[in-house]
């Protein structure tokens, strides 16, 4: 029996990016929610949060917001950064996001931040390390977080599990959600040679709270998660497969480099809306035929 | 094959190989070079863990290169945005070298990439590996002040409510908006900034030391902006920022007409540079 999803379906959203602030404020585009990158609204260490915080507070009046971080570094072997978590908690108290997410990765060690989403070996040691830290973060924030599968260009010979089993088991043991990045699944399936649909089928659907779609680029034989292009056909196909498997889940498009005008971005996420509508209508038609 | 690496050792090794300034291939071929200024950044921290990275149809060094390139290019892109005029001043190639040197000395310890450049103005003021015009150092400081103003605390202002009381109390002390940074330059920085912003070519001979200027950088509404101030008025604003009472703040002003003083003061109020009145306990009373 299919379990009830732990997260509400917010509908269709977009990643909030600074070139679009004015457009959104003036035209109030028809969208259900925005995802804001947490660190962009947490300010600098020795100052406040300035203009970005004002923009987010204003946007919050009209839209649901989710916070998506890039520096939690949940997989790092450094101590958890509680000064970062305190600022994140303060931001969450102010903005009241529907949820907070970050990535299943590490971003630095020995106090340095490489500002990249670095891959982890899928070992028992990593597993235990992550579960313990996710519990601590969730206890501190007082809420269940979501963790996103990342794109990777290397894998480790000593990994003991597949990525999809690792992600599934982590989410269950740590009682957290999954932010499923369909583009990252596709990129990794090409880079490491696995079946992306098998990946999706292995995931616990009730824990998938949000879906990311994005574009990528090719560097030689490797796909790189650059977020600088439209979503490709293969990723749309995989997204359609995910809707068939999991139903309609809060879905958004990320675009972080060579950012187009807002209407182009809105049209891109409109394709996701179309696929969701198509697949859920097909499903309800089947149900009524069976009835 | 050696013993399975611990997660910690693996991360330390990956950090080294991704951030070694020479790039992955050179770092792997010479993991302990001699005579580098920032030796630890060039030195493999323990034994190599390369053998633990899958090395199928694509070489593991090629795969690691993607992370190494992304590390540098992501930070460079951010600093090019934050220090766009500084980059124009030194040229793209020299700026890239400067950032590479900067990252050796000050690798990011920040959770926000927007903060990575915070020590850059200080770094280039000490930098002497290749010649940099002295005024570039102050230009970089100006640009970082811009970023700080962008992120400075928000403070809502109600001008009309307290404007009348300014005239009546000479002991009044003011709250200067948290975004305001005052910068006194030995160079004609205002002229330089205007030239860069208008995409005009710069002839360094036109900019002489001693033709200094005084600037106030601040946030106006949602945008950061700046004013060039007469040195006397700059000192007044500095005094007000230090919470000196109104009368004393203006006491040393010379050679500025009362009309200009009045107009400047009104501008500061209207633009929110002065955004509140302080009581005896230094609390804001608007």
Give a verbal description of the structure.
Chain A is an alpha/beta fold. Helices cover 42% and strands 15% of the residues of chain A. Chain A is built from nine helices and ten strands. Chain A has helices spanning 21-27, 50-60, 82-95, 124-141, 163-174, 182-192, 196-201, 233-246, 262-290; strands at 12-15, 33-37, 64-68, 100-103, 146-148, 177-181, 208-214, 217-219, 222-224, 251-254. In chain A, the strands form two sheets. Chain A has an eight-stranded parallel β-barrel, surrounded by five helices. In chain A, helix 4 (124-141) runs parallel beside helix 5 (163-174) and helix 8 (233-246) crosses helix 9 (262-290). Chain A is globular, with a radius of gyration of 19 Å. Chain B is mostly helical and 286 residues long. Helices cover 49% and strands 11% of the residues of chain B. Chain B has 13 helices and six strands. A three-stranded antiparallel sheet of chain B has the order 1-5-6. Chain B has a three-stranded antiparallel sheet with strand order 2-3-4. In chain B, a hairpin with a 2-residue loop joins strand 3 (213-220) and strand 4 (223-229). In chain B, helix 4 (60-82) packs across helix 6 (92-105) and helix 5 (84-90) packs across helix 6. Chain B is elongated, with a radius of gyration of 25 Å. The model of chain B has no long low-confidence stretch (mean pLDDT 89). The chains are: A alpha/beta (291), B mainly alpha (286). At the A-B interface, helix 2 and helix 4 of A face helix 1, helix 4 and helix 8 of B.
């Amino acid at each position: 029996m299919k379990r009830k999803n732990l997260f509400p379906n917010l509908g269709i959203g977009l990643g909030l990016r600074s070139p679009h602030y004015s457009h959104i404020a003036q035209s109030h585009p028809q969208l259900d929610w925005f995802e804001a990158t947490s660190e962009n609204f947490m300010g600098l260490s020795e100052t406040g949060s300035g203009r970005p915080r004002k923009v987010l507070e204003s946007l919050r009046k009209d839209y649901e917001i989710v916070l998506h971080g890039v520096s939690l570094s949940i997989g790092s072997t450094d101590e958890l950064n509680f000064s970062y978590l305190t600022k994140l908690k303060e931001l969450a108290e102010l903005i009241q996001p529907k949820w907070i997410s970050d990535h299943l990765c590490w971003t630095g060690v020995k106090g340095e931040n490489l500002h990249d989403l670095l891959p982890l070996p899928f070992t028992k040691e990593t597993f235990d390390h992550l579960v313990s830290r996710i519990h601590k973060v969730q206890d501190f924030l007082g809420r269940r977080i979501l963790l996103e599968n990342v794109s990777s260009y290397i894998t480790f010979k000593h990994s003991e599990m597949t990525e999809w089993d690792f992600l599934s088991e982590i989410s269950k043991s740590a009682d957290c959600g999954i932010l499923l990045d369909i583009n990252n699944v596709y990129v990794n399936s090409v880079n490491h040679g696995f079946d992306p649909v098998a990946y999706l089928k292995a995931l616990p659907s009730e824990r998938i709270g949000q879906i990311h779609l994005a574009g990528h680029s090719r560097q030689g034989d490797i796909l790189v998660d650059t977020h600088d292009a439209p979503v490709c056909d293969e990723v749309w196909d995989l997204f359609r497969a995910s809707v068939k498997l999991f139903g309609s889940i809060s879905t958004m498009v990320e675009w972080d480099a060579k950012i187009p005008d807002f209407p182009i971005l809105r049209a891109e996420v409109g394709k996701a809306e179309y696929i969701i509508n198509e697949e859920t209508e097909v499903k309800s038609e089947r149900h009524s035929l069976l009835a | 094959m050696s013993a399975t690496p611990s997660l910690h050792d693996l991360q330390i090794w990956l950090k080294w190989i991704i951030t070694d300034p020479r790039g992955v291939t050179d770092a792997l071929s010479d993991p302990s070079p001699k005579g580098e200024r920032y030796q630890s950044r060039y030195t493999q921290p323990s034994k190599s863990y390369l053998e633990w990275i899958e090395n199928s149809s694509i070489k593991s060094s090629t795969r690691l290169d993607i992370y190494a390139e992304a590390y540098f290019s992501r930070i460079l892109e951010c600093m090019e945005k934050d220090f766009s005029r500084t980059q124009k001043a030194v040229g793209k190639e020299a700026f890239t070298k400067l950032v590479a040197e900067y990252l050796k000395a000050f690798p990011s310890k920040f959770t926000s990439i927007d903060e990575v450049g915070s020590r850059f103005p200080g770094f280039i003021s000490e930098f002497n590996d290749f010649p940099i015009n002295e005024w570039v150092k102050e230009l970089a400081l100006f640009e970082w002040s811009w970023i700080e103003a962008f992120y400075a605390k928000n403070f809502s202002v109600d001008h009309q409510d307290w404007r009348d009381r300014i005239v009546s109390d000479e002991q009044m002390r003011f709250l200067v908006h948290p975004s305001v940074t005052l910068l006194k330059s030995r160079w004609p920085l205002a002229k330089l900034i205007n030239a860069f912003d208008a995409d005009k070519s710069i002839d360094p001979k036109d900019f002489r030391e001693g033709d200094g200027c005084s600037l106030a950088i601040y946030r106006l509404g949602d945008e950061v902006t700046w004013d060039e101030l007469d040195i006397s008025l700059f000192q007044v604003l500095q005094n007000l920022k230090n919470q000196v009472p109104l009368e004393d703040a203006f006491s040393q002003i010379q050679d500025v007409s009362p009309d200009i003083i009045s107009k400047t003061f009104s501008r500061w109020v209207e633009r929110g540079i002065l955004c509140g009145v302080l009581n005896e306990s230094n609390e804001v009373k608007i």
